[in-house]
Structure formats: C-alpha cells, structure tokens
Amino acid sequence: MLIREEIEQREKKILSPYASLAAASRGRLAEEEPCDIRTCYQRDRDRIIHCKAFRRLKDKTQVFLSPQGDHYRTRLMHTLEVSQTSRTVAKALMLNEDLVEAIALGHDLGHTPFGHAGERALAAVCPLGFKHNEQSIRVVDRLEKGGEGLNLTWEVRDGILNHQTSRHPSTLEGQIVRLCDKISYIHHDMDDGERAGILKEEDIPEHLREMLGRSTKERLNTMIHDIIRASRGKKEILMSEDVAEAMAEMRRFMFERLYTNPKAKMEEVKATAMLQELYGYYTDHPDAMGSEYYAMIAEKGEKPERAVCDYISGMTDQYSIAKFKQIYVPRSWEKY
User: Which domains does the chain have, with CATH numbers?
Assistant: First the structure.
C-alpha cells in the first residue's frame, strides 16, 4: 500500500464524520496522477508554499504601509498566523488539518500591494471589478506556473474563494479559515496598533475586555476556545452568541480606531493615486507590462483591464513604487 493510501485510511479512522477526507475530494480542474506520499490536500499546501505569489506576500502591506520596524505584520505574517490558528481549531475538532492549512496559506494570494487600500483602488477604476478573494482564485487557476495554474483541488479553491465574511465555504475546514482570518487580524492588528502608539489596551471598551480578555493574548485564547466549544460535534463551525457579538463589536472598534485612523492611513491616499495612475498607464500601454501579461491579451484574448489588474495586484509594495518612479519621475541625465 502506498504511503498516501495509508494516510487516507488513517483519516477515515480518526477524523470526525464531518471532516473532508482527502480520499473523497471532488478532484482537480485537470485530472492528474496522485502523489504516492502526499494526500491531495498536502500536495496543494506544498504547491502554494512554493509558488511565487506566496513569496511576494512578505513585501505586501497588512495594515501599516512600509512600517519602520521589524515586528509589524506583513501580509505573509498574517497568512502564517491564520494558518496556525486554523490548524489549532481543526486539530481540536478532528477535522482535516491539511485542508485547513492549504486554504489558509492560499487565501490572500491575490491581495494587492498596500493591502485593502490597493484593492479599493483597483476596484474603483477597473470596470470589470476587483476583489482579492476572486483574484486569489485567478492566481491559482490562471497566473501561476507561467499561465498553467496550480491545479488545486475543488475544496481548497472553494475555501480560498469563500473566506470573506459575506460568503460561506462548503467545507467545515473552509469555515474554520473564514473565522480564524477575522480572529487573527483582530489579534495582530491590535498588537501592531499598540506597537505604533495609535491604540492602548485601555481604549478598548470595558465590556469587551471583560468578555474577551484584557490583552491580545487573552482575547485570542478566548475566541479560539469559544469556536471549539461551540462547534464540537456540529455540522457547522460556530461561535457562542455572546462571544460572536463581542468579536463583531471589537472588529467595529478596530475599523473606527485603527483601520480608518489618519495616522495609520496617512499614506493611503498616495498609494491609491499611484496604483490608479499605474492602471491608467498600463491600460494605455499594455506592451509595457511583463511579457507573460501582454501575451494574455495578444495571444489568449484576455481583456486588457483584467490583465492589467493581474499585473498590478501581483506587485509588492516596493516594486509598484519602483515602477511608478520609472514611468513618472524624471531621472538625472546619464552618459551611456
């Protein structure tokens, strides 16, 4: 028996009856020979970790644009914290930890430079619209591996697409990532806000501190334990009503005091204008993009607006700044 088959047999014996078993996956967009060692979800995890879009997350904004300090989160650190939190919950609920990990690691692959400011910037100028969760699916289906895509399983793609608040993943593993994404950014963005001197622990309303905890560590612990208690033996990933309401109120507090705070967001106007200028330039000059993106238009019939969004959203913060300078900022004359 192959090692993969042994792992699949263990899943059937050990995991919850509500878990998504690797052996029962709905499959990939294109059929391929299974790995002899790894299950399909383990293979998806590895493909995501080794793809270029994943590596670029280390230089993309989480909350603070180009922060001066080594300990502020980037989009990559957010992704890793979502993965770790999601795996903790999945293990406790006897669900498929490999599937959870793959979804969590891939959920933000389509994020723009400069975080949600970049997402809003492209959504405002592109007539086709732009959403980072949909772009993440484009990354894994169309853009990685020179246009071949990663050919991920249906369950991983479903979890990536549906990780936002307004959507509902089909698997319990996807539902875990959807909740742990919120828990993670509430936790680490508060921590970064305190580090930046924008927020203090005492700013949080007393009733929320009483319900959730009096430190970022306590609040993370409270929310994780609540999900596990509320979801054990259920066909749905839940939180208790009181903790869910407190978490929603904490999220509103974060939007009011941090995400829209002028000190944290004072450079967003510049970043938005810059990305929109780049969008205008590349829609007028698509041949100035990388050859693979121009080929999508010239050879594969992709709409220019979509290919331009693909190109810009794949940039890191610093690369987008460098391209803007190259196009719009005069350089000193040099003798060649």
Answer: 3-23+30-262 (1.10.3210.10), 268-326 (no CATH)
